[in-house]
Specification:
By secondary structure, the protein is of the alpha+beta class. Strands 3, 4, 5, 6, 7, 10 and 11 form a seven-stranded mixed β-sheet that branches. Helix content is about 55%, strand content about 10%. The chain is built from 20 helices and eleven strands. Helix 17 packs antiparallel against helix 18. It binds flavin-adenine dinucleotide (FAD). The site of flavin-adenine dinucleotide (FAD) has 21 residues, from strand 3, strand 5 and helix 14. Flavin-adenine dinucleotide binds next to strand 3, strand 5 and helix 14.
Length: about 600
């Protein structure tokens, strides 16, 4: 028995057209002016069809079959149907959807790419990891590649005939990339010989395409220790010269694939570089900055992975809650003609469903808002608008990544819980979502690393510039709707909690001056606090947008009631996180390490 999936077109359209008003935005954004609703709808509908018809049926079999590795040929075979689906993806022009037209892409904004990605990942997250890594490589090559590198490497990736990877992690270095040991020795022809072993490399080897372009972090001779001595290199599986001629096999091979908890159709590879030919991309010793170009895109994309899994798990849990009959409602039978009432009448089942619905729809508005910032940052003609979008985006990226993926762990678990024992057994397909979701809070920087990025870099190092902008935006929304009686129930608590956000930040800042451990001690609770407040803002905006839209009464009602649930039952979590933040680092560090056992 497999789970079903229907792309949530109505809610995506609502978020894009009503909440974020992207038509107004695109009308003045270079390269987007021609994008009207009809065109955007057409892309979304096609993506929905492809995801539902081609990818979704491969999800459960792909999980059961997994990838296989042949050590004699160092080759990876993806689950049955994955390769054919990739060919269809390429034929449909999806590989270059948001890539620049100059490189053969379709030049669509990320705001449209993001929901397309959500549909793909809901349908089949493991399959979606292959194009995801290409998307990161496209960004890095686009932003920091030299002309010849763009010509030679970017175009085939945009066309989908080659794919990309991101090779950072080594056995002894994950979160701390400063420890990495892979070496790059300059060759006479201007390339470098790359030597070292990378682990956990998604799509490091597969059977979709002939060539694979690895973007690899390594150290040049004499490079300073730590993150200031890392450079980024392009290392193709088959050598490619500056004119684009593909030559012999490069000295990079997959040594093994990992056996893992979930995401089984995605090849997680050990990659051995044995003097492989690599080309420096960007400046020497500035590789981490270059990598951040890929990582920021990928962090938003992983946030969307979380959203996507939550959505699919929720759709199925909702269907099950409507059909499965167990016990009677406490207030008396709701379906007296049936032997028992459906699960959906029970208070706690409703809590589980509404928790998912509110986290998913609020998260979608937040995620798509971040995508609009990417487009403004890349395309706006106005310097101020670009800088402002960049500042806000850099502040929101760790929140989107960590919050949407942590929510996925909660949502997929709640969805499984609604199925009871039938969720825990494999037959119904629900346990796959729990297993698949687990990695999303780990890769692309764990939740802890996102939290340190938020509080350490985005707040304290940048003097809270992003937070300030976001708070101004919330304040402007609240004052715009201050006299709107129908929004009062959302605007008043939102304004109050947003006011606290700056206070808490200052409290941590003062403490951190005396004791830097205060940042690490507060970071994850601070991130959750920020995430819940951000979602409250998008829920208030959603109700305002729904009220003034042409949607029918049921739609408006559903938005308002879900928002009411969010404010009543989810937003109070922010207060608990605030209390934890205010409790300081003291209780974490009081105990000696030796006393932990
Ligand atoms: C399926 C899969 C796919 C992956 N794909 C890729 C890929 O394509 N390319 C790639 O380069 N890597 C990839 N990775 C690696 C992934 O990005 C790392 O696993 C991740 O960054 C964490 O590193 P680590 O596993 O070494 O954990 P560690 O860094 O050892 O961390 C262990 C724990 O300690 C916590 N921690 C570490 N430092 C701190 C700190 N300063 N403060 C608080 N907590 C801290 C972490 O949050 C974590 O909970 C993948 C991993 C998996 C499992």
């Amino acid at each position: 028995m497999t789970t079903h999936y229907t792309a949530p077109l109505a809610d995506v359209r609502f978020a894009l057209y009503d909440v974020l008003q992207v038509e107004k935005l695109f009308a003045h954004l270079p390269g987007c002016e021609a994008l009207n609703r009809e065109l955007m709808d057409a892309v979304l509908e096609e993506a929905a069809k492809f995801s539902q018809a081609v990818l979704a049926p491969l999800n459960q079999p792909g999980d059961q079959q997994g990838c296989s590795f042949d050590k004699n040929t160092a080759s990876v075979t993806t689950p049955e149907g994955f390769k054919r689906a990739y060919q269809q993806f390429v034929e449909g022009g999806w590989a270059g959807l948001t890539a620049p037209e100059a490189s053969g892409g379709q030049g669509l904004p990320e705001t449209i790419g993001a929901p397309v990605k959500e549909f793909i990942d809901s349908a089949n997250l493991a399959w979606g990891t292959y194009p995801l890594l290409s998307h990161g490589a496209i960004e890095a090559l686009r932003v920091i590649g030299e002309d010849w590198q763009r010509e030679v490497f970017l175009k085939p990736i945009v066309a989908g005939t080659w794919t990309g990877t991101m090779c950072l992690t080594e056995a002894h270095c994950g979160s701390d990339l400063g420890l990495l040991k892979t070496r790059a020795e300059p060759n006479a022809d201007g390339s470098c010989a790359i030597t070292g072993t990378k682990i956990f490399i998604t799509a490091g080897e597969h059977d979709f395409t002939d060539n694979i372009v690895h973007l690899v972090l390594a150290r040049l001779p004499g490079a300073p220790a730590g993150v200031k001595g890392i450079s980024l290199f392009i290392v193709p599986k088959f050598k490619v010269d500056r004119e684009g001629h593909v030559g012999e096999r490069n000295a990079v091979r997959c040594g093994a694939i990992e056996h893992k908890m979930g995401l089984k159709g995605s090849a997680t590879c050990v990659m051995n570089f044995d003097g492989a030919q690599g080309w420096l991309i960007g400046e020497p010793n500035r590789g981490l900055n270059a990598m951040f170009v890929m990582m920021n895109t990928a962090r938003l994309a992983v946030g969307l992975q979380g959203l996507a899994l939550s959505e699919r798990a929720y759709q199925n849990a909702l269907g099950y809650a409507r059909e499965r009959l167990q016990m009677r409602a406490l207030s008396g039978a709701k379906f007296p003609d049936k032997p028992a009432d459906p699960l959906i009448v029970h208070g706690d089942v409703r809590r589980m469903l509404l928790t998912q619905k509110s986290l998913i729809e609020g998260g979608r508005a937040l995620g798509l808002y971040a995508a609009t910032l990417v487009d403004i940052q890349h395309r706006s003609k106005e310097d101020d608008a670009r800088v402002q979008a960049e500042t806000l985006l850099s502040f929101l990226t760790p929140i989107v990544k960590a919050m949407l993926t942590e929510n996925a762990i909660e949502c997929t678990n709640l969805a499984l819980q609604i199925y009871g024992g039938h969720g825990y057994i494999a037959e119904h397909g629900m346990e796959q979502y729990v297993r698949d979701a687990r990695i999303t809070t780990i890769y692309e920087g764990t939740t802890q690393i996102q939290a340190l990025d938020l509080l350490g870099r985005k707040i304290f190092q940048q003097q809270g510039a992003g937070l300030k902008l976001f708070l101004e935006e919330i304040a402007a929304f609240c004052s715009r709707h201050a006299s709107d009686e129908s929004l009062k129930e959302f605007v008043v608590p939102l304004a109050a909690i947003a006011g606290e956000w700056a206070d808490i930040t200052q409290t941590i800042g003062k403490r951190a001056m005396a004791n830097p451990d205060e940042i690490g001690a507060a970071a994850v609770d601070y991130l959750f606090y920020s995430g819940y407040v951000a979602l409250a803002y998008f829920w208030a905006r959603s109700v305002a947008a729904a009220d003034s839209s042409s949607h029918n009464q049921d739609f408006k009602q559903a938005k308002r009631l879900t928002a009411r649930f969010y404010f009543a039952r989810i937003l109070p979590r922010a207060s608990a996180h605030r209390a934890a933040v205010e409790a300081s680092a003291e209780s974490l560090f009081a105990m000696a390490d030796a006393l932990f056992d």
